[in-house]
Amino acid sequence: MAYLIDENRLEKIYLKSYHTIGRQKVSVDTIIDKPTISRHHAIIELTDGKWLLRDVSTNGVWLNDKKIDKNLNYTLSINDKIDFANLGDNSFVVGNLETNCRYLISQSSPQQVIEIDDQTVIPNEQDPSHIIYHDKIINYWFFEDLNTNDRQALFDGGMVRALGTQWLYICSTEHQATEIMKTDIDVAPCSMKFNVSQDEENTQLSLLVNNIEYDLGTRTHHYLLLLLARRRIEDKEANIESSLQGWQYREQIAKDLGIQMNHMNIMLHRARKQFADLQEHGAPDLSFMLESYFGKVRLSCPDVSIIKGAHLENRITF
């Protein structure tokens, strides 16, 4: 997490990828409410893997006790000392300069920080209420309520509510801007094979992608995928239009599995993440195979086989 340390208050100031400092409360990220500070005094920005400091003020900025030129960029380093307006009056020390991190900061207790990876459950796996995840298909980061399925896209500097308080989302990365990617996905030849025990207590899953087989092992969320596969097959055999095949409401999935809604949602996210993580082993991104639409979910794979016990239950192409 990139941050400065306020030497007067001994507090961390977490940096956004484009971070403004000044006196104007409405329009800056870090407020220094003193008459010598300009409304917009300085900018700290992440560019080309480096954190840069720029003076845009009237009374100046000092870096390691030397006044910097106005409107020029200066590269920051760990332990650099920054003074705004006057030496020693408004001093900050550079504490961390990470260049690819995301986190939430509690607005009721600013020193409470939650670091975010590709899939972060809040407050913990044992008692989850929300999840933060990256949807690689559309390149959005989402904050989702696991009980209501409500979700919102995350933007650098945006607010979300969880655990009874507001949280500020900070994205310290050069690629923090949300972009819509192309909707036509280059789908690799792919088939999915379920091996489910006779009592349906264990479900093993393997994928064949570009003639390479990936064994995903036995996981509890594979049974959820199996239910979605069976629903898709039923709709196909009933001659339902392709675009309508296989959709299941999340509430129905949770009911069929006999679990709470938040637990079911975590299983969905784990399945999607397992697909996406196959990229580390040379596969394309397969997270698109779990589609979501207004509270409904379906499995999207062109070739599905189900083996129950030692017998083929079904095989179908879409």
Task: Give structural notes.
With 318 residues, the protein is mainly β. It has 3 helices and 27 strands. The chain has a 6-stranded antiparallel beta sheet with strand order 2-1-11-10-7-8, with no helix packed on it. The chain has a 5-stranded mixed beta sheet with strand order 4-3-5-6-9, with no helix packed on it. The chain is elongated.
Helix-and-strand structural type = mainly beta
Q: Which stretches are low in confidence, meaning pLDDT under 50 for 5 or more residues running? A: 175-186
* DSSP strand count: 27
Overall tally of structural domains:
3
Q: What would the principal axes of the Cα set say about the shape?
A: elongated
Q: What strand order characterises the main sheet?
A: 2-1-11-10-7-8
Q: What share of residues is helical?
A: 10-25%
Radius of gyration: 25 Å
| Distance between the amino and carboxyl termini | 45 Å
Q: pLDDT average, as an integer?
A: 89
Beta content: 35-45%
Summed up, the helix count is 3
The largest pleated sheet is described as: 6 strands, antiparallel
The topology string of helices and strands comes to EEEEEEEEEEEEEEEEEEEEEEHEHHEEEE
